[in-house]
Design a protein that fits this description.
- This protein is of the alpha+beta class and 493 residues long.
- The protein has 3 domains: 281 residues, FAD/NAD(P)-binding domain (3-Layer(bba) Sandwich); 83 residues, Alpha-Beta Plaits (2-Layer Sandwich), CATH 3.30.70; 94 residues, 3-Layer(aba) Sandwich (Glutaredoxin), CATH 3.40.30.120.
- It is built from 12 helices and 30 strands.
- It has a 6-stranded mixed sheet. Strands 24-23-26-25-29-30 form a 6-stranded mixed sheet. A 5-stranded antiparallel sheet has the order 15-16-17-14-18, with helices on one face.
- Helix 1 packs parallel to helix 4, helix 1 runs parallel beside helix 7 and helix 7 runs antiparallel to helix 8.
């Protein structure tokens, strides 16, 4: 029987990101996918600021950025949200196809030693006190892999979730979105999004020269999940709502989706975890889905590494569900609201007019925008410092080796004790092999924290591998640091 430390089911963005995170930490990984090959389909069309920050933290963004298009605004139910003044290096949405993101993540995971094994669906498992046996199908019959953990990143119809007996509760579809990637003989003068007409709305977005993504949403139609949408049926529906087909031809991909919103009742069952669409599905309102999955992976990856390397410490794994399940629930909540706000009719038009006026107010725009971009997430962490539990800003620093940034220091994927401006908070002996210690001087006296405002640059921060602050101090010294180290990284060696 083959052995490894973690088996990942699903070679999409979530599974690839998780595989890369684990390999960065030196964890053995087998990455499986039931498809014979990657389809090249591109469901998602963009990444938000927090995901760009995560890619920057791992050195992935420089190659990805030139392949996308900067969009200074996003939307809430097709009502414009201006991101340009948000406190991040990336105050915009990057319009980049999921297929491009997958290609970059696939390259990184393969370089780190975790290529996708195609044609290898997970078909069963049995877990015990010391590990889990994963049954893998394929053209040559089934085989077994022994691992410490199994993570289902295998989509909304997750086999892993079903085998684990984890419920997937929520609301059924009430509307249908239809999408086609096509060429246009008579394209619009410029791209547009969410124009409303009749029983739905329609969009036309150009991702690359020569072809367009057309989308039409109908609130008077619910298509059965798994049914096929033919190109001619898409054209008919688009004409009915938009009044034109822009001379669409040569379709690359045609699909449909509903606004069903469901979430796993729990994200963990013993040695089995769920991430990405396996844990939550929702209407693609605001472009949050791919971002949510990538951030699930980055939250879970370092915790699995701690459990496997932290002297038998696995209590940290419980924080994956306690941190990420509420984030997923919030996305389902706001996408349900966005779908409702897109419904047709005079009453909804009046509500949209009022919402548009409210969004013009900075306090409302910021509240909604930080939620959509995930810049405002705060995990439950001991300490009353305003930065505790939040993502650490990408401050400009000077070290003994020269100029750098906080995110550049996170490229190793290891926990880091960042001591600033001469503070010498001591790192206890028992964790020195697990935590990088960096002494630096901040070029700024204050940092801007989304959802909080400006704060004085702290004296020291214990930064988790996912970029969130596990402990923060404004004073010279280490009060509470040992407790934070034990809470997140396990007992001293």
């Amino acid at each position: 029987m083959e052995t490894t430390e973690v088996v990942i089911a699903g070679g999409g963005p979530t599974g690839l990101m998780l595989a890369a995170e684990l390999r960065l930490a030196g964890v053995e990984v087998v990455l499986l996918d039931g498809l014979p090959l990657r389809t090249g389909e591109s469901r998602a069309g963009g990444i938000h600021a927090r995901t760009m920050e995560i890619f920057d933290q791992r050195g992935l963004l420089d190659d990805l950025m030139p392949q996308g298009r900067v969009m200074r605004a996003g939307h809430f139910s097709a009502l414009r949200l201006n991101f340009s003044d948000f406190h991040t290096r990336y105050p915009f949405m990057l319009a980049v196809l999921q297929s491009v993101v997958e290609r970059e993540l696939d390259r990184r995971a393969t370089e780190l030693g975790a290529p996708v094994r195609w044609g290898s669906p997970v078909v069963g498992f049995r877990q015990d006190a010391t590990g889990i046996d994963v049954e893998v199908g394929g053209p040559d019959g089934t085989r077994w892999i022994r691992a410490a953990y199994l993570v289902g990143c295998d989509g909304g119809r997750s086999t892993v979730r079903k085998l684990a007996g984890i419920g997937f509760t929520g609301t059924d579809a009430t509307a249908t979105g239809m999408l086609a990637d096509v060429e246009l003989a008579d394209p619009p003068a410029e791209p547009f999004f969410g124009l409303r007409r009749g029983a739905g709305d329609y969009s036309a977005v150009q991702f690359e020269p020569g072809w367009w993504r057309l989308v039409v949403q109908r609130h008077d139609l619910v298509m059965e999940r798994g049914s096929t949408l033919l190109f001619e049926d898409f054209r008919k529906n688009y004409i009915e709502i938009a009044g034109t087909d822009f001379g669409m031809h040569s379709p690359r991909w045609v699909t449909h989706y509903g606004d069903a919103a469901r979430q796993a009742d729990r994200y963990r069952d013993g040695r089995v975890f769920l991430a990405g669409d396996a844990a939550h599905i929702h209407y693609p309102a605001g472009g949050q889905g791919q971002n949510l999955g990538v951030q699930d992976a980055v939250n879970l990856g370092w915790k699995l590494a701690v459990a496997l390397r932290g002297n038998g410490f696995d209590e940290v794994l419980d924080t994956y569900e306690s941190e990420r399940l509420p984030v997923g629930a919030r996305v389902l909540h706001n996408t349900r609201a966005q779908t409702a706000l897109q419904r047709p009719g005079a009453h909804m038009e009046a509500l949209r007019d009022i919402m548009g006026d409210l969004i013009d107010m900075d306090v409302v725009r910021e509240r909604l925008g930080l939620m959509i971009t995930a810049l405002d997430i705060r995990y439950d962490t001991k300490g009353d410092h305003p930065l505790a539990g939040r993502r650490v800003p990408d401050g400009d620093l000077v070290t003994g080796e020269g100029d750098t940034r906080v995110f550049e220091l996170l490229r190793s994927g290891r926990p880091m004790l960042l001591r600033l401006n001469g503070n010498q908070a001591p790192l206890a002996q028992g964790w020195r092999d697990r935590v990088d210690v960096v002494d630096a001087r901040s070029r700024d006296e204050r940092w801007a924290v989304p959802g909080v405002g400006d704060i004085a640059v702290p004296a020291a921060i214990l930064i988790r591998p996912d970029g969130y602050a596990a402990w923060v101090s404004d004073r010279a010294g280490d009060d509470g640091l040992v407790e934070a180290l034990a809470t997140w990284l396990g007992p001293a060696s």
